[in-house]
Amino acid sequence: KLAGIPQPKISRWERGKEAPSAKYLPKLAKALGIPMEALLLGGDIEPRNGQITLRLPIVVRVKAGEAVPPTILDGDTIEVTLDMAQKADAVVEVKGDSMEPELHEGDLCGVRWQDYAAHGQFVVAQIDDFDDLTIKRYVQKPDHFVLEPINRKYPSYSSKRHCIRILGKVTWVLRWYER
Description:
Elements: H1 7-14, H2 25-32, H3 36-41, E1 46-48, E2 51-63, E3 71-72, E4 77-81, H4 82-87, E5 90-95, E6 108-113, E7 122-127, E8 133-140, E9 145-148, E10 157-158, E11 164-174
Parallel strand pairs: 2-5
Antiparallel strand pairs: 1-2, 2-3, 2-4, 5-6, 6-11, 7-8, 7-11, 8-9, 9-10
């Protein structure tokens, strides 16, 4: 009640059904009277250049090209700022060149898991088959939407011809050479 978070959500956290997303951490920390960083990593917090950084797992390698089954990554992590961690639920690695020159192979993308997008946003989506994922630009049309690559040698996917499920939107990008 002190945090202003619905009881059913807290109950799901306590039962291990889901983990709190970064947007709830400030409210939870304030209600508990502890630094927010303590909720994230306990003693593993590293201030660097005046900013708090932490390591997030890179959960999946998603194809930027033809939609293919994703590669689940085990153990890879990336150091990000607290601000980046609050904007993303997960980190995915780009594989392929369909989104060049805006996204390159090896880039890491922060993704907020949600089932909708706004025109022009980059999204992680499932196309036709449960195992096939891709990253594309979401383009809203009057009566449907299209997932478009930046690199025109790859196909677009129309919601009129494909069963498309938006899984999340890209909230930030870290270039492979910036890591």
